[in-house]
Model the fold of this input.
Amino acid sequence: VNYMASKLDPYISGGSSYPPLAIILAYIVGLFIPNTATLGSVEVRSQGRLGKYLLIAMYVACILVISIVVWCRIWKQTRESASSSSIHETVSKRRRVLRIAARILLFGAVTLGIALSAPMIFAIDRGNYLIVCILFITLFCVFYNKNDYAASIFLALAACLKIFPIVLFYLFFRQRKWKPLFVGVGTGAFLTIGSL
Done:
């Protein structure tokens, strides 16, 4: 994909099926990887490790953000269920330490579970940019029904990187949230046409 994006004309010369915003993302990543424009992926891989480090940094950043979002959601639900079922009691120093240790263990388990899931391993093996799309879908899920405008913008960004998230706009249509729907569709159209 970086090779196709390097000339910024992937639809004629390379026959790409990626949306224009994904091509621009690949182009930007390709700027940091030496000889992406002239060599194929096998030659670039054997040439140096800068490209691998760049992709690993992108994956680590996305996985951490997704893990933090999921961890906060799980921890919040755990605290709500614990507080509704028990009477408030004074918390000893030992219990506070155990709670902190439980938070750290939960974060590690969530991060490990996300990083070792089959889709994530497949994406890392392929060096796929799908992780950025998944990050935007996660942020869409966080903001949905809290800030529908932000949710629609994150969904539009995800749909501009890969086509399949566009079906999630049906949620706005189904619940008759017309303004966020038009903001999301407008943002996606603007980004796609601008990137093209």
The CA atoms of residues 172 and 181 lie 6 Å apart.
